[in-house]
Amino acid sequence: MAVFAIGDIQGCYAALLALLEKVRFDADRDYLWCTGDLVNRGPDSLSVLRFVKALGRQAITVLGNHDLHLLAVAHGIRTPRQSDTLQAVLDASDRDVLIDWLRGRPLLHHDPAHRLALIHAGLPPQWGIALARRCAAEVEAVLRGDDYVYFLRHMYGNRPERWSPDLDGWDRWRFITNCLTRLRYCDAAGRIALDEKGPPGTQAAGYRPWFEAPRRRSRGTSIVFGHWSTLRITAVEMERYRVYPLDSGCCWGGELTAMRIEDRRFFSVKA
Q1: Domain residues of the chain, as ranges?
Q2: What is the CB-side half-sphere exposure of residue 140 using CA atoms within 13 A?
Q3: What is the pTM of this model?
Q4: Could you give the angle at which helices 95-103 and 65-74 cross, rounded to 10 degrees?
Q5: For the range 230-233, what are the long-range contacts, defined as Cβ-Cβ under 8 Å and sequence gap of 24 or more?
Q6: With contact defined as beta carbons under 8 Å apart, do 87 and 11 qualify?
Q7: pLDDT tens for each residue of 142-151
Q8: Out of 3.60.21.10, 3.40.50.1820, 3.40.1390.10, 3.40.430.10, which CATH number does the structure's domain 3-270 have?
Q9: 6, 76, 105, 229: least buried by Cβ within 10 Å?
């Protein structure tokens, strides 16, 4: 048995199959962890959704910003972008089953045996892993509840910028969602900068990658994440910060990357 964590697939179904063949993934024995963004930008989001869903308990996928975008589009809350490649999902005969399955996915998965967490984007420095799990569970409960469409309507926006335990309602849930699905940079005080999207070195003064924040309370847990295709850090930096970024830009013509959890070995295939 092996556990393979895989970066943002974003509809790149052929690359997914090639990568699973390369690592000799056995769906009867092995486990697949996905960093989110199963859909959009790539050519075959529908097949990716069907494939990962069919793996059942052998697959764990956390929600990414593109997955949430699909939910919002499917419910008429957002207008499809010109760059979207979601129409096949929206037109599918099993569309409703897939949408309901997707909104039931977690925002954070924690494996105490491996002392490892799986998320899509980042964590603010004020959160230890226990608080991160509780915050993720709050939003997961809303998404799985009867009133989840109201949450989708209030989900978008860049504020609030900083965590406070006093946050409540839409502001609290929006901040949680933004961190787990959109975060790349924050400052030393924990203010998040969601408009900063480039590689390290291009951000505004005072901001740094979220995992470099001083006194980050989640340092005791290794974190696997995606979302940041332009991030390049060395193996030494990965071990120093205990983070393992896996988005290598498959939908942009880059690679699809997986990491075997047991020995931290990386595998990639070209898009």
Answers
A1: 3-270
A2: 17
A3: 0.97
A4: 130
A5: 230/198, 230/199, 231/184, 231/199, 231/200, 232/199
A6: no
A7: 999 999 999 9
A8: 3.60.21.10
A9: 76
